[in-house]
Amino acid sequence: MPETPQNLGKLISVHGTSPAFLQRAAIVAILSFFFFLTMLIAFYIRQQFGYFVLSSAFLAVYLFTMIGWWMQKRNVVSIYENGITHRKFIASWDEIESSSRYDQGIRLISRSGFETVLPGSINNIEQLAVFISSKIQH
Hints:
alpha+beta; 4-stranded antiparallel β-sheet; rod-shaped
């Protein structure tokens, strides 16, 4: 596999996480933070331990949502004239042996045996699958 993306030519497109997935995470984060604050206020007013437990649970949901959102930022697929990159997977079109589309995304296998899965949460995954298969067949 090439060492750097510079060997792959000019950048054609970049596909990040779909806005629909980011929007869902934002709604969960906003609601969980709102309920966290509401339960803290209820605990302050009523002084019952149950409200503190609920606020802690909503804080945990909020934190896990934010961690997941931050981790989704790394799911970026870059398409170049002569190849593709995804996280640590860098391959020219000639090096990719096969690609298969399934519900969770696209599986790419290089001739050296290294493989990666482009997740289904990538923006325009269907067009990406068609483009990749057309490049591999040539």
